[in-house]
Structure formats: structure tokens, C-alpha cells
């Protein structure tokens, strides 16, 4: 669900983004990582969705702001980061067909501790908090969305915590290569190094070592 944490993109949807209308389906694809959405449920959800566009480098939500949207990436890539001791610590990336928002802020209506930025030109498909509450009150569809996103968030968080406790930076990088081979080069090295909790020069050494090992085999 949440970015580069383990959600596999569905190749059959690679060509889905042919029109503005088709972009809305990124939201459905992201939700269906948990449980399939019926056409009837989708017909209830889609009228509440809106497309939001961001330029490369533009802040989608800043630290201290209230997150008002549950969003899926229709086009582009975003990074999630926090500030610590004057540095930016990247902890999540999201690509096409994946959910991306400051979920704790969205649920609690409290200031976000997370900043989200467009790494590339980005289009998000977004459901406003008020619209989700309307769906909660009018049908079981809203409850289903809430349940799927909450379950996905906690699965992602547990997996990320276990990875950080058990994997070396090189193992983390290999895990990313296995899951996102076609997307990993879209992440600037300084952001990727921060995600792996190493310096950029250490990431360069990891890449060279992996390349040499693969040549030998």
C-alpha cells in the first residue's frame, strides 16, 4: 500500500493512463491491493474523487499542515520525509497506482509530522476527508475504504520496522531492486541513500559491489 514498502505494481495496468478519466482508476487499483472493489462500489466512490497536479519539487503537504486527502498516484513519484537535526530523512516513496498521504494526520485531523514532495511531475487522485465521512454515513463503501487503508498502513509499518531491524543497507537495496527494478532509478541517489540510512558515497559502493557480484555470476 504505502510506497516502496512492498506493493507490487500491476503490469496489466501500465497503459491505463491514456486520458484524464482513466487516471481515476489509479485509486481503484490501489484499493484493490487489499480487496477487489465491485463496480457498484466504484460507482459510489468515483464522483467524490478529484485530480490534483504538482510540479517536480512542489510540496504536496508540509510538516505542520493538516492532511485533507487520501490519495493515489496516477502519474509520477513522490517522497515522504521528516526533518531531524537539520536533515531530511526519507522513509517512503510512492509510484503509480499506490496510495500516498500523511495518514496519521488524515485520521486524527492533527498537524502532519510528515512532508510529501513530488520527485517528478505528479498527478494524484484524491478523496477529501469530508467526502470519506459522507461515504461512511451513506454506505458501507466508506467503511470499506477506511478498513483497507488502515490495514494496509499497519502492514506496511510492521514490515518497514522489521526491515530496519534485520536487514543491512545492502540487503535493503537488493530488496528494492527485486520489487521495483524499473522504478528505482527514478529516485535521486541522495533520497535513496537517506531511505537506506547511509551516506550517498556508501550507496555508490553498494551499487558497485552488487554490479561486480552480478557480473561474476
Mean pLDDT: 84
Number of domains: 1
Low-confidence stretches: 1-18
Strand content: 15-25%
* Number of separate helices: 9
CATH topology: Jelly Rolls
Q: Which CATH-level-2 architecture?
A: Sandwich
Rg, Å, rounded: 18 Å
Biggest sheet, in brief? 4 strands, antiparallel
- The percent range for helix content is 40-55%
CATH class: Mainly Beta
Outline: globular
What does this structure look like?
The structure is a single chain. The chain has 217 residues and is of the alpha+beta class. The protein has a single domain, classed as Jelly Rolls (Sandwich). It is built from 9 helices and 7 strands; from the N terminus they run αααβββββαββααααα. A 4-stranded antiparallel sheet has the order 2-6-4-5. Helix 5 (129-138) crosses helix 6 and helix 7 (169-179) packs across helix 9. The longest helix is centred in the last third of the chain and has 27 residues, at 140-166. The radius of gyration is 18 Å and the shape is globular. Mean pLDDT is 84; it is low at 1-18.
Amino acid at each position: 500500500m504505502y510506497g516502496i514498502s512492498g506493493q507490487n505494481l500491476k503490469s496489466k495496468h501500465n497503459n491505463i493512463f491514456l486520458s484524464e478519466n482513466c487516471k481515476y482508476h489509479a485509486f481503484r487499483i490501489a484499493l484493490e491491493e487489499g480487496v477487489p472493489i465491485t463496480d457498484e462500489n466504484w460507482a459510489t466512490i468515483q464522483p467524490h474523487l478529484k485530480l490534483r497536479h504538482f510540479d517536480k519539487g512542489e510540496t504536496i503537504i508540509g510538516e505542520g499542515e493538516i492532511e485533507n486527502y487520501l490519495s493515489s498516484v496516477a502519474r509520477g513519484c513522490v517522497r515522504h520525509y521528516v526533518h531531524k537535526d537539520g536533515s531530511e530523512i526519507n522513509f517512503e516513496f510512492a509510484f503509480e497506482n499506490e496510495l500516498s498521504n500523511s495518514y496519521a494526520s488524515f485520521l486524527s485531523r492533527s498537524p502532519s509530522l510528515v512532508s510529501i514532495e513530488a520527485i517528478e511531475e505528479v498527478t494524484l487522485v484524491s478523496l477529501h476527508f469530508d467526502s470519506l465521512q459522507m461515504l461512511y454515513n451513506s454506505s458501507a463503501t466508506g467503511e470499506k475504504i477506511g478498513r483497507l487503508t488502515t490495514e494496509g498502513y499497519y502492514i506496511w509499518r510492521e514490515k518497514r520496522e522489521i526491515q530496519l531491524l534485520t536487514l543491512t543497507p545492502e540487503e535493503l537495496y537488493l530488496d528494492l531492486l527485486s520489487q521495483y527494478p524499473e522504478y528505482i532509478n527514478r529516485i535521486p541517489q541522495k533520497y535513496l541513500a537517506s531511505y537506506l540510512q547511509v551516506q550517498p558515497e556508501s550507496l555508490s559502493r553498494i551499487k558497485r559491489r552488487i554490479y561486480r557480484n552480478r557480473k561474476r555470476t
